[in-house]
Amino acid sequence: MVTATSPLARQPDKLDYASPTQFTFGIHQLPKVEFFVTAVNLPGLSLPQASMATPFKDIPVMGEKLEYSNLSITFLVDEYLENYISLHSWITGAGFPQKRGQFSTFRDVTSNTQIRAGSTPSVDIVGTATSDKTMYSDAFIMILSNKNNPILQVNFQDIFPVSLGDLDFTQAATDVEYMSVTAEFAYKIYDIETL
Question: Which of 54-58, 105-109, 117-121 has the highest mean pLDDT?
Answer without folding.
Answer: 54-58
